[in-house]
Automatic annotation (TrEMBL):
Gene3D superfamilies: 3.30.450.40, Histidine kinase-like ATPase, C-terminal domain. It comes from Thermosynechococcus vestitus (strain NIES-2133 / IAM M-273 / BP-1). InterPro entries: GAF, GAF-like_dom_sf, HATPase_C_sf. This is Tlr1447 protein. Coiled coil: none annotated. It comes from the Bacteria. Residues 28-179, 210-363, 384-533 form the GAF domain. Pfam families: GAF.
């Protein structure tokens, strides 16, 4: 395989490595300030830095220095008292950093908040400095901008810097303690009592040249004073939670056998005794056969083969670094002097203990730091990250005596962990198979862990149980597991395994955790590159699909083009569309030729869309609310879950995973089809692909609807245009014939003065009607025109009444006009008459025989546009006829109609009423139709008066004739 080449290392990471080197070269704590301030200001762009050391005895943070937005400030050396439960106290106790949008607005910070207010500090990050889970201090970085905190790579770099700061603070603090504290403790111990045994112990300890000689001298001296049968010293193993008997005396030198096989006991085996020792108590057992105390170390007494035991802890801080014991084979009541002398001896040993432990820890720390520094430098210098991983795995395996090293990354699709790197490299295949998904408890365990998790004997472990089979095949018996982002979401894991049970030490856990942090940068970069590649592929496919949809206007070509683009986007062998015409209940299948013969689909059959379970489920899902769940309208299923009726046409034998989604642009609009996507059984759909798929499907749905609507409207427009042309030409023909007839009639009447007066009047009426037709034929050929006529309201109503006289007689209807005012109307009266006629015709058609229709007239005064006084004429028609509720709903929702869906407005009378509503809007009228509380149906037409508009009517003063 070709190795992945990484880009050159970024300047921030190089600055981080340089800063860590500077920290390691300092000899005083004060020397740490300058490198910290330089890195935070110049690399991270933060203007506030403060380092405080934690004093556990006084519960204070002691300022060591830093910088502020105004330069040097007395606050930098100030002491901050930690109140119990305060925010800084929680950061130290929880050992987790926090971010604050504004430091000066945080009420839980007390003195720090006051200083932040004076200095104008807002966006802040607070980092605990921890070493071996012991809080050493706090580092605070801040800015004068609200919400300005570290993110992304800057946050990772800062976390690495804080991790490297812990060991250096521990090193410098330990050096300072070694130089100054033991002498004070010795003086205090010497002044504690003036008894001869104590003075003798001090003299014996002062004469010894080495730590081992001091131990032997003290043990021999205290043994001579108290005369137990044995005096033993148990010392904690630095790398393991184990106490070994380092030395003991019975008044004679140790045997070679005891030196070869020193006695050892674990912390767990000490049980309640360890709790007592950790609290500083001296454990006294006078007779092992009558022990009832929970603190009695029964397991230890069995190992020592004694019946009386006196044990006191050797404490360094709060850590039990060892304990001293007096042992007797017979029951013995220990007195206070023996207890006191043993305690003083333990305190003397505690004074010298840090020196040896510090030397061991420093050597171990330097070794670990050399590995971390070497790895960080390799990340900066190397372009081949696989070589860096190989080097890290090889070094870890050598330093920890491990047989296996794995770097795993979490796969959000499979929920499993892919193997990015394995040491030693596998044989015969490229990579180890993925590790199976973790259980919820193990996931939470890894996410909350701040250091590597140690599994000492995996055969007896329930943690990481999901991997028991995988690790068993590798014969891994003990394991160290560290997340690359401790305390945050799980991204990658570093595993170090041995083929035998192992007691892992804290130093080994810390080393693995620090290496995991650095390797996390590599894995995170790989994930970013992989994501960027996928996003670029999806983006290109999306753009190609959108461009293809925009270029297509034919419906059949649009469907095939959209399916092909979706196939390219999702990289699947089958995409099909089940589509149908509006109002139909049976759909047909449109699909491009499948790329594989085992993904065929039967496109020669018709599908009942409301009976097929898959199609029906997709249609139901399309009505779901996608605001809370963007995938609510998407059906994800498998071939095994399909109904046999669906399997009849979705019949490919290799079809496994299936997606189905309806082409629906809005819940108010009818769907025009259901899209089907199919792939193999092991196909997993990523969030990125699903989001892009839904987006492109939505665009296809809009294009499909728009193209269908354009075709439908185009066909309707062509039909109506043809009909208009035909009727207009026929009307012109009839008009010409009637004009010729009228001229002949007029000429005949003129030539015959004795002609019947009725014939003369009919000729005049015919001439008048022909004159009214002329504007229609000349000005309203292809569009409506606003004409102006004048007539009384009574005349207009009479004309309309005359037109419906036939219906009135046929159904014996009682029609009455009420409150008719004397008005002269000036406007497009011909269109007004047609509207009134359509409303009265609608009422007559619905009214029962011998029914009643009332026409109410009313003049209304009010405030119109611009605040001017306006007048309206209200014409209301009430009847007792039944109206289909759906018709009323659609008439009130004309602006939101789905023109592709079958509707009651497609046929009379709904079609005629719809035209009346549109015509009223053009003329400035207001038309409402609804049912009254008493069951009558009301048609209300509001006509504006005195607006000076050619489409409205004017009120003229008119007096009735005397």
């Amino acid at each position: 395989m070709t190795s992945a080449k990484s880009p050159k290392v970024s300047p921030p990471l190089a600055a981080l490595v340089n800063t860590i080197k500077q920290l390691q070269q300092q000899e005083q704590i004060g020397g740490l300030i300058a490198p910290l301030v330089s890195f935070v200001q110049e690399t991270l762009g933060m203007s506030f830095v403060w380092l405080g050391l934690y004093n556990e005895a006084s519960k204070q943070l002691i300022g060591q220095g830093g910088t502020t937005p105004v330069g040097d400030h007395p606050f930098l050396k100030q002491k901050l008292t930690l109140a119990a439960g305060s925010l800084l106290d929680q950061v130290l106790m929880n050992r987790k950093p926090i971010s604050l949008p504004s430091l000066k607005e945080e009420p839980r910070l007390g003195e720090l908040r006051e200083a932040a207010t004076r200095l104008g500090i807002q966006g802040t990050a607070i980092y605990p400095i921890v070493r071996h889970r012991q809080p050493l201090g706090i580092l605070i970085t801040g800015s004068t901008t609200w919400g300005d905190t570290l993110r992304g790579d800057d946050l990772a770099h800062m976390s690495l810097l804080v991790s490297a700061l812990g060991p250096e603070l521990e090193r410098l603090a330990a050096t300072k303690t070694t130089k100054g504290v033991p002498e004070a403790k010795q003086v205090a111990a010497a002044a504690m009592t003036s008894d001869d045994p104590i003075r003798h112990l001090l003299q014996e300890a002062s004469r010894a040249n080495s730590f081992s000689q001091r131990i032997e001298a003290l043990l021999l001296a205290v043994h001579q004073f108290c005369q137990p049968q044995r005096t033993s010293l148990f010392w904690r193993d630095v790398a393991q939670p184990l106490y070994r008997r380092r030395s003991y005396t019975v008044g004679k030198p140790q045997s070679r056998e005891s030196q070869r096989q020193p006695l050892a006991i674990t912390q767990q085996e000490l049980a309640g005794c360890y709790t007592a020792l950790a609290s500083g108590q001296t454990v006294s057992v006078s007779d092992s056969q009558s022990v009832v105390s929970a603190t009695a170390p029964l397991r230890l007494m069995q190992m020592l083969n004694c019946r009386a035991l006196l044990a006191t802890p050797i404490l360094v801080g709060t850590e039990v670094v060892g304990f001293l014991t007096f042992e007797r084979n017979d029951p013995y009541p220990w007195n206070d002097n023996e207890k006191k002398l043993l305690q003083i001896t333990a305190e003397l040993l505690a004074l010298a203990a840090p020196t040896e432990r510090l030397e061991h820890l420093l050597a171990q720390t330097q070794h670990a730091q050399s590995l971390v520094s070497e790895l960080a430098q390799a990340i900066c210098d190397e372009q081949d990250w696989r070589r860096v991983l190989h080097r890290a795995g090889e070094r870890l395996a050598a330093d920890l005596g491990a047989q296996w090293v794995f770097l795993l990354t979490y796969n959000s699709l499979t929920q499993a962990f892919d193997v990015v790197f394995q040491y030693p490299a596998p044989r015969g295949r490229d990579r180890h198979p993925p590790f199976p998904p973790l259980q919820k408890m193990d996931w939470q365990l890894l996410e909350t862990a701040t250091t590597a998790i140690a599994l000492e004997d995996y055969s007896n472990e329930l943690r990481l149980y999901s991997w028991k089979e995988v690790l068993g095949k590798l014969n891994i018996q003990s394991l160290l597991a560290a997340t690359t982002t401790p305390g945050h979401s799980l991204e990658a894991l570093l595993l170090v395994g041995r083929t035998e049970p192992t007691l892992w030490g804290k130093g080994q856990q810390t080393l693995v955790q620090e290496v995991a942090r650095l390797l996390g940068l590599i894995s995170h970069q790989w994930q970013l590159q992989k994501t960027n590649t996928q996003q670029e592929q999806v983006r290109s496919a999306m753009l190609a699909g959108l461009r293809a949809l925009q270029r297509t206007q034919n419906l059949e070509r649009l469907e095939l083009t959209g399916l092909q683009q979706l196939m390219n986007l999702m990289q699947v062998p089958l995409v099909a569309l089940v589509t149908w015409q509006p109002g139909q209940t049976v759909g047909s299948i449109v699909a491009p030729p499948p790329s594989h013969p085992k993904f065929v689909i039967r496109n020669d059959i018709e599908i009942p869309i409301y009976e097929d379970p898959l199609i029906h489920s997709a249609l139901m899902a399309s009505q779901a609310d996608v605001n809370g769940n963007p995938y609510a309208g998407l059906i994800q299923t498998t071939a095994a879950e399909l109904d046999p009726r669906t399997r009849e046409w979705l019949s490919g034998p290799d079809i496994g995973q299936i997606l189905a989604i309806a082409l629906r642009t809005d819940p108010e609009y009818e769907p025009s089809g259901v899209l089907i996507v199919a792939d193999h059984r092991d196909r997993l759909w990523s969030t990125l692909h699903l989001e892009a798929f839904i987006t492109l499907v939505n665009h296809l749905a809009w294009a499909h609807r728009s193209t269908s609507l354009i075709q439908m409207l185009t066909q309707g427009w062509q039909t109506l245009e043809t009909l208009n042309w035909y009727k207009h030409r026929r009307l012109e023909q009839v008009y010409g014939q009637l004009t010729s007839f009228c001229q002949q009639l007029t000429q005949w009447v003129q030539e015959h003065p004795e002609a019947d007066p009725l014939l003369r009047r009919l000729g005049t009426l015919l001439q008048t009607q022909l004159e009214s037709l002329h504007p229609l034929l000349s000005h309203e050929v292809w569009q409506l025109d606003k004409a102006t006529h004048t007539a009384g309201l009574a005349v207009v109503l009479k004309r309309v009444m005359d037109r419906i006289e036939n219906w009135k007689q046929r159904k014996q209807l009682w029609i009455q006009v009420h409150n008719q005012p004397v008005l002269t109307l000036n406007g497009d009266l011909s269109k007004l008459e047609l509207i009134l006629y359509e409303l009265l015709l609608f009422a007559c058609q619905r009214s029962p025989s011998q029914g009643r229709i009332d026409i109410w007239c009313q003049q209304i005064e009010g405030i119109g546009q611009g605040g001017k006084t306006a007048s309206w004429l209200e014409l209301s028609i009430t009847d007792n006829g039944e109206v289909e509720p759906q018709l009323l709903i659609k008439l009130h929702q004309l602006e939101h109609l789905d023109w592709l869906a079958p509707s009651s407005l497609d046929q009379p009378p709904g079609r005629h009423l719809k035209i009346c509503c549109h015509l009223c809007q053009r003329l400035g009228y207001s038309l409402d139709m609804y049912k009254l509380e008493d069951g009558r149906f009301l048609s209300r037409l509001l006509i504006p008066l005195n607006h000076g508009d050619t489409g409205t009517f004017e009120l003229q003063s008119s007096q009735p004739r005397q």
